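A favour between colleagues. Tell me how you read the following sequence-structure pair.

===
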Amino acid sequence: MKKQIWRTAATIVLLFSLIYDMSAQDYRDVVFLKNGTVIKGFYKELFPGDSLRMETIDGGVLICAMSDIVRIAKERTSLYVVNIQDEASLPERIWRPHGYRGFMEYGEETNLDDSGLKMSSLMTVHGYQFNRHVFLGIGFGLQNVEYSTNGFRLSFDRRVIPVFGDVLLSILNTRITPVVDCRLGYSISGLKGAYFNPSVGVDFGISPRFGGYILLGYSQQKYKDDNDNTDKKLKALSLHCGLHF
């Protein structure tokens, strides 16, 4: 008689469990057996007074005799389920997203024809990143030209202000990537004339929109010599480093 009452009570509990499953998908069933086994899964079918069919959490199906069941409970699945994403399924990180991009840099240039002539510069470039690899912008800067010979240093009274277009190519879409840069423009003050500066270097990404870079290249500045009114060129080895944002 007592067994019959207990089986009836268990049947009622299971029926309510089925109804509850429809409104609480964050829970699952836990069945405790007399032999100490604990089955976690989802109640699928009940045969009153006979057996219970369970779908286990690993996808299997298990049928338990009602006489072997000690009790039935529920637990939250969020406490036990861990979402694991395969690395290949994660979205690819874009280190150079399209949109506005700006650069601030400091540079040193050593003249190839005259070791006594040196230039230092501050440059800024602003433009648009079209995709992960191509940037187009416009820049300008201020160059200070110094000439040192026999222990004397002469700074030109005129400062050189180049204005130029800039094309920057990032070879890879990774945090650290080789880059190719080309600047072409005109100096509007000081040594007036065409300005040309191709270079190669490395970009170090700290975040997708912020990082640093180093450029090594060749710089050429045309100008007119005031003494003999002839066109001349300053040819220099350039080293620029800066930050982009």
Q: What stands out?
A: Residues 54 and 60 are 8 Å apart (CA to CA). The chain has a mean pLDDT of 80.
